[in-house]
Amino acid sequence: xxxxxxxxxxxxxxxxxxxxxxxxxxxxxxxxxxxxxxxxxxxxxxxxxxxxxxxxxxxxxxxxxxxxxxxxxxxxxxxxxxxxxxxxxxxxxxxxxxxxxxxxxxxxxxxxxxxxxxxxxxxxxxxxxxxxxxxxxxxxxxxxxxxxxxxxxxxxxxxxxxxxxxxxxxxxxxxxxxxxxxxxxxxxxxxxxxxxxxxxxxxxxxxxxxxxxxxxxxxxxxxxxxxxxxxxxxxxxxxxxxxxxxxxxxxxxxxxxxxxxxxxxxxxxxxxxxxxxxxxxxxxxxxxxxxxxxxxxxxxxxxxxxxxxxxxxxxxxxxxxxxxxxxxxxxxxxxxxxxxxxxxxxxxxxxx
Amino acid sequence: xxxxxxxxxxxxxxxxxxxxxxxxxxxxxxxxxxxxxxxxxxxxxxxxxxxxxxxxxxxxxxxxxxxxxxxxxxxxxxxxxxxxxxxxxxxxxxxxxxxxxxxxxxxxxxxxxxxxxxxxxxxxxxxxxxxxxxxxxxxxxxxxxxxxxxxxxxxxxxxxxxxxxxxxxxxxxxxxxxxxxxxxxxxxxxxxxxxxxxxxxxxxxxxxxxxxxxxxxxxxxxxxxxxxxxxxxxxxxxxxxxxxxxxxxxxxxxxxxxxxxxxxxxxxxxxxxxxxxxxxxxxxxxxxxxxxxxxxxxxxxxxxxxxxxxxxxxxxxxxxxxxxxxxxxxxxxxxxxxxxxxxxxxxxxxxxxxxxxxxxxxxxxxxxxxxxxxxxxxxxxxxxxxxxxxxxxxxxxxxxxxxxxxxxxxxxxxxxxxxxxxxxxxxxxxxxxxxxxxxxxxxxxxxxxxxxxxxxxxxxxxxxxxxxxxxxxxxxxxxxxxxxxxxxxxxxxxxxxxxxxxxxxxxxxxxxxxxxxxxxxxxxxxxxxxxxxxxxxxxxxxxx
Lengths: 352, 544
Fold this sequence. Notes:
The complex is a heterodimer of chains A (352) and B (544). With 352 residues, chain A is an alpha+beta fold. Helices cover 33% and strands 18% of the residues of chain A. In chain A, helix 2 packs antiparallel against helix 3 and helix 5 packs across helix 7 (302-314). Chain A is elongated, with a radius of gyration of 27 Å. Chain B has helices at residues 25-29, 34-62, 73-92, 95-108, 117-140, 153-156, 161-188, 201-232, 246-280, 287-301, 316-343, 353-376, 378-384, 388-412, 414-418, 424-451, 465-495, and strands spanning 420-421, 497-498. Chain B has a two-stranded antiparallel ribbon with strand order 1-2. At the A-B interface, helix 2, helix 3, strand 7 and strand 9 of A face helix 3, helix 9, helix 11, helix 12 and helix 13 of B.
């Protein structure tokens, strides 16, 4: 698209693969809008001049619409609108369907800050670093109110909602720094909840990746973090990692599979599903299992949630062994020290 | 004011008008006359219009610089909430129905009043009580949630959310009562000669909008009560930690607030459907198309709320479905626009201030409507959602559409209400200023949205400043035009030139009696000899 059109519409630079198609549709839609409102206006002006009143008692013939004229009008305009919808919705679906090789970054929003957690365990505030030319999927959740992750240059926006994961993906096309805004009003410093996407050329990204980010505290990558967290939080007391049936469904081969629920729905086990199962275990109870898991909402720090999901993802290729352990009968109340139904397990001290 | 009036073709003895029949303050405050209640509403919503305008001016002044200008961030957040709530609930929703609907609906169907005159008065008192409650709560405690009250922010926001929500809940009853009253009136009070397909198109618009008011307003009430419960009693209805769902609130809110957009625009469309035939001296291009599309909009309007939530985390299928439903609203609006424009063809057009306002309406509404289709185009909305593009879009519909139609109606029916004529040149001047000021205010906001400036932003990046300054400059012109209009209309109501019962030579039924009308409108149940758009018949041959 010529630069002067972008300038005329005041559009930000096109920084993602999706932005080209969207801008093309944008220009098509806005041009049609301009032309049609001007045409209607011009037609009205023409009628005023052509049919101006000559005398006060002038009579006019009674005329009216024919079915043919109305029909043409309706079909014509409706086809234009439907054409926009078809093009737009195809783009929308593509924008929400990440490629299989997309790298995942976990995003946690809070008043008034963005936190990005990468699969290798590093964490950054307000700066998201991504390579050029590779699809990146963001799995996002909020710790307090609704926020909205918005990068104008990528033409990408998604609300970030507490208690659930929403996701968005993009593939950056040009190295550079692009602003991130919060687009959903979230309180007094809403307009300062900004960040930057740093898009790096492949070589720069490699050297960024290889920077030593670990300190001596023994932090490991996100998968190992997840394994540790799962042990610490007693997830593995009920879920196996080798395919055996236990109190809860096994994690082996779980990620990416289609899970059948007790009400017959079939749900894809992706990041959103796994997170929802931790936060609202009773929302999706897997067929053949009892609804006994307590909610971990508020009990698990978001980085640990991401880490556990990452751990479950790493188990996707473990073949279930099919061996069944004897079923234990455990009631959630007996298990929870807090006693109250729905309360999370007691908070454990944070790992350094 | 009781001068002799001459109704074409008939000699009648003098009757006092609804204004002169009693003059005490009590006779106004306890009136059950639909015309006086219309004027009570006019006085109150004019106050709220100017209050809301004042808040808007303060917002525009704040945006003259990217950082703090005249207020703090907390004040700014309360200011846009104050502006939104005042304009939506205290001006825009009651505006045309309660003023012109009340004043004209009974006259237009040959009735002497609405079906429940005392309820009608009650609705005004409820409105004033609720409105004062809202304003007091907002100024005393302040609310910074925006007019949308999105949870969970509104559940935790450190402000007077519950009292304000209660006030709006109360105002809602006034809306529902008016709606029920109009529906009953149209069904039961029509004179024998007023068939369904003979009614003036404004009556159709009032009928359609009343149906929406009665069906949608209770859902708003429910949503606000739920927010109140969540905020006050801490039940966690929308708290995901306790199994609640914040997105559910958005569904509830927009189930009301999307149809509310049509509560605001359908009456405006009714006004335009009256003004275009009168000033063109021409029957509508298609009476049926306008009447049917009114109900088309009302119906599809209930099925398109999800287009406010394309990026809220709905499923892709829902997004597609709500996107295509929205196109349905657009097609009905397009039918109306073309029908109005084609009505002028082969007419005898006299360009006066009301028609000039309608021209402003046509341009702004078509532009605003088409950008509405643009934001309903799912992939484009991802970029525009919650940016100034959306702000510009709905101001084109609300201000460019409803406010210009309200002003058009004010000028068009001014002789009917007062028996006097407004100053025509000033009317034309103010119409041009409203259009120009409006366009300069809001067109730059489309560009700001394209550039990516989110709405409700106290601080904004410096590169957005020049367009913001242009927008603020336009707001001053618009504000000046409004003050000018208020001044000359008040002046003309007292000192304006008397103009006779029907200065526009309209065939519409409300113009066939005296202006201003007598207390009970008609001596006996009227029988209208011709339909309200009979411009092929000389005025002398039309009888009541």
